[in-house]
Amino acid sequence: MLGFLIAILSGALMSVQGVFNTQVTKQSGIWVANAFVQFTALLVCLAVWLFSADRASFSALFKVEPKYMLLGGAIGTFITYTVIKSMEQLGPARSVMFIVVSQLIIAYVIEILGLFGVEKQPLEMKKLLGAGIMIVGIIIFKWT
């Protein structure tokens, strides 16, 4: 149950952050806003790390294998950029719908192919049907 609540909070925070970042971009420029977002995220992470019980050493990062797994932060830069641009062009609701469906489909492909060290899962028709229903929902939402 806690996992569901955390996921709901994550979605809510992502939506609010996207709107905030889009507004900041209008007054500063997309790469300035993006740099500020990433910089403030770094400051918050360092502060939480400093005062948390989980004081894992940064040297553990050098042991991560495969090394491409360390690209999450760089990918985050492009996530921020694409969220800002999509919200700017589609509005928050439509943008988030496409983002969520895209996340779901790509996450499922990662699972069924067993990519990036994720345990391979079987292809299930009910999950494909669920994704299809979400896509139909987007079409209905867009046309109303």
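Above is the first protein from milestone M3; the second protein from the same milestone is given next.
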Amino acid sequence: MKIAIASDDGKTIASHFGRTRGFIVLESDGKSVGKQEYRPNTFTGHARGLEGAEHGLDRHAPILNALSDCQVVISHGMGRRIYEDLKQANIEVFITDETDSEKAIELFIQGRLIDRPELSCDHSHE
């Protein structure tokens, strides 16, 4: 399976999914971590300069497409609409209070990573 972690620096989990500089994308067999890459964020609405635009499914289509090969997404925070859109796309989502990507992966593999959807935000960017 592939796991995407929102990260500005390739180590720390970003606090805002849409504003992250990129995504650590790694493969896991459920016991260990394999191949890993870093995908620069050129596809979220924020990265494409759509600040203040209406949050909607069409706006999220580029990120859903860019992460369509991933079965899991981990972030330290994200908007409620992208959280729901990822889930509707059959991607398991974890909003975590953990900020270290390696620790989050370790917790995920152990089945101990907790999704904290209350950390999502229902904000407007207007």
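Note on the second protein: The chain is about 20% helix and 25% strand.
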